[in-house]
Write a structure and sequence with these properties.
Blueprint lengths: L2 H21 L8 H5 L4 H9 L23 E4 L2 E4 L4 H14 L10 H27 L1
Antiparallel strand pairs: 1-2
Length: 138
């Protein structure tokens, strides 16, 4: 097994553990980058998973704060949809939401928390896909 595979499996396990803890009412203040021990989720996806974070359907446009402000997300019968007022305000609003939002970042009850979990699930799927492709290469 390669170092990349080991690292991806550890990160996948952390994401699974975080979700289980959230479902049990345990929440966290830090973002996914800190929880996964990576400097940038944007760079992690590009460099290790081969998929730009810009492909995530709810991407805010801000590489440092990819989760959009709740006011830029609409809940539909098919799930959450990114619906920004305008692109430039969405980028700065994403940072504001993370830094000063005042809500629990991972609450499954809030739009912001559910959007963060949408991102975590998207990253988990991309990690699984990458691990499968690495397995097929052997």
């Amino acid at each position: 097994m390669s170092l990349l595979e080991d690292s991806l499996r550890i990160k996948l396990g952390r994401l699974v553990e975080l979700r289980q803890r959230a479902e049990n009412g345990v929440y966290f203040e830090r973002g996914l980058c800190a929880r996964l021990n990576i400097g940038s989720l944007f760079e992690f996806c590009q460099d290790n998973l081969g998929c730009p974070l810009t492909e995530w359907p709810l991407y805010s446009g801000n590489p440092s704060y990819p989760v959009p402000h709740p006011s830029d997300v609409r809940e539909t019968k098919n799930g959450l949809v990114f619906w920004p007022r305008n692109t430039s305000s969405a980028i700065s609003a994403a940072e504001y939401a993370y830094q000063h939002g005042g809500w629990n970042k991972y609450s499954l009850k809030s739009t912001y928390g559910r959007t963060r979990w949408e991102l975590a699930e998207w990253v988990k799927d991309k990690i699984r896909q990458k691990l499968e492709s690495l397995d097929e290469e052997r």
